[in-house]
Specification:
9 strands, alpha/beta, TIM Barrel, about 375 residues, homodimer, seven-stranded parallel beta sheet, 17 helices, about 45% helix, about 10% strand
Chain lengths: ~375, ~375
């Protein structure tokens, strides 16, 4: 069903801007990862952080899912805590997820963190992105990313992952000045990092506000949203021209995707950001999201857990998602990252169903 | 503002059935717990499971928050995994939450689990409830509880808590028969356990389907909801008479509360159960829940994280909740359990604001 005029890169970038494409583009969050034997092979020879910091290895693992599944987007291999480490925080990657043994708890802890020049401190991320552009050409869009300020602040304050987010919520209630200062600093860092990624070749960028869904809408609007918006605005400021036909290599026209897990209660608030695409989790039906933020491009939203089942069920769920959006202004993706236990045949089924696109009838019926 | 005619017990039970009361009743999930120094004192002398199994100790810790805050409900101290242990599963309570070292992964694992007679195997839960009724009189309603089948199945299959619920979702996709059999068995166990609690004096019961919010609405309707409904129906069957004026000591008229964390996408489906009260998390605004399931009693929904902040902010948030419901058909509670880090003055502020009730204007305006 593909029109010869649509490269994977054009398909993804134009869908981000809501333009008509031959079929909805598809990629997967955390598509380079432990479910792939070739990833585990590379990872057995290098620590997680060495993988992030060594361009040859990071390029190799970023390309592994591209070679297997030909997604329309290739996200560069890294971790949202790479910039946090460059700010001066200690980060250790253990078996149970990242640990920050010196969590941020007061103003002086924030004062010890610093804004940094990505072209000096994380130059390797630029090298990885340039390498990926060379390798991938126009067959897929190269995607940069960063954690959103709220989510990075959660890791810094909690000292790692959390179930209850007690430490950051305590700071939210008891030391508003320190939390504001930290979020402002992180917004600047996120903007610096993503601007550098864009200069280095990222054709779209995704901001992961993974943990913002823990907040009520009121608290999201007060804390997480303004910090994410501040980062987005700083990136946009470089060039307000978003005409995709005039899209160049700079920040100009580079689509931005905002992801929040558990975002059903936050969608209208997320839409007040200048993000081109809202990436939603599996709990919120795409059809409902389309009604609530009409005209906004959506990304998502298959339950990563559904990829643990039967390939035929995966195909059915992908077709159902396409019927909900008619494939218009929609980037097929998961509602969160691929799980390590995922069988490869289910990932194949996802991309196969994505490539067969949406039927004419469904496309004609679905609202944009 | 209290009318002399309303005891705490009557206030809570009638609010569950949507009847007018003098002010909204209030209690807190996990109100007996680590944030109380007197709890930590008792806990220092007994293991967690000994606390659950020793009526004197369990009664003592259940009453601790009642003495301090005079809530309208006293939930008996226990754990949702007590019945799972009585089914024959090994459960260990470690520092990082419960662990089930022999997770259920196949049909023969399910076959090893058994339905049991609560009056023989967990007789102590009956003794605790009878003791609490004696101690509390009509000053508060004594509340029983159990985990819902889906949530108990999650623990059994994952072998403890989980971030991704990969094992149960894999079984959902690959071994539907085994999962159905486990959920049926658990529904019977939950019904047996709650019926026994009701016979032993529980005046209302809450079913915790804490992890069902991980499912899409489609999957919730296929798996978690029918299992919870089966348990509810089995309890109701004993006596269909729900006239609160005729409420007796048996299952007759005992209100049932269904709690799901992250339930915004599931509310209409939850309302298809026969639960009298839907207990919602903090992400879903009470006003929206009221519009979506009009006439249904609601419980909740302060963010437990908000109790880590400032007492004045807690009072403001409680007043805002009351304004949303007008205090009608509303049981004030949290959106999940009290966090161990919670300062006591914030819990006091919650109950204080609850007792001052809702202003006349707000009550007149709010829809039911």
């Amino acid at each position: 069903m593909s029109t010869p005029g649509f490269s994977g890169s054009r398909r993804l970038l134009e869908a981000c801007l809501g333009l008509p494409v031959d079929r909805p583009p598809a990629w997967m969050m955390r598509q380079a990862g432990r479910y792939l034997p070739e990833y585990r092979e590379v990872r057995s020879r290098a620590s997680f952080f060495d993988l992030c910091r060594t361009p040859d290895l990071a390029i190799e693992v970023s390309l592994q899912p591209f070679r297997r599944f030909a997604p329309d987007g290739v996200i560069f291999f890294s971790d949202i805590l790479v910039p946090v480490q460059a700010m001066g925080a200690r980060v250790e990657f253990g078996e149970g997820g990242p640990e920050l043994p010196e969590p941020v708890r007061c103003a002086s802890d924030v004062a010890r963190l610093r804004r940094f020049d990505p072209s000096r401190e994380v130059a390797y991320t630029g090298e990885i992105l340039r390498g990926l552009r060379r390798e991938v050409g126009d067959r897929a869009a190269v995607i940069g990313f960063a954690g959103a300020p709220w989510t990075l602040a959660s890791y810094l304050i909690e000292g790692g992952g959390s179930k209850s987010f007690a430490a950051i919520k305590q700071m939210m209630g008891r030391d508003r000045t320190t939390l504001s200062r930290l979020l402002d600093l992180l917004a600047d860092v996120v903007a610096d990092v993503l601007s550098f990624q864009i200069e280095s070749g990222a054709q779209a960028v995704q901001i992961f506000d993974t943990w913002a869904g823990e907040l009520t809408e009121e608290d999201y609007r007060e804390w997480a949203l303004p910090a994410a918006s501040r980062a987005i605005a700083a990136i946009r400021q470089a060039s307000p021209n978003r005409d995709p036909l005039a899209r160049g290599e700079g920040a100009e026209g580079v689509p931005m995707i905002l992801f929040v897990n558990v975002c059903g209660h936050l969608l209208e608030a997320m839409a007040e950001s200048a993000a081109d695409v809202l990436s939603i989790d599996w709990r919120l039906p795409l059809s409902q999201a389309r009604r609530r933020v009409p005209g906004r491009a959506l990304q998502g939203n298959l339950d990563p857990g559904a990829l643990l089942g039967d390939p035929e069920d995966v195909r059915r769920r992908v077709r159902a998602m396409l019927a909900e959006t008619g494939g218009r202004a929609h980037i097929l993706n998961l509602g969160h990252g691929v799980l390590p236990q995922t069988p490869i045949e289910c990932v194949e089924a996802f991309f196969e169903a994505a490539r067969s696109g949406v039927g004419e009838a469904a496309a004609a019926e679905a609202p944009v």
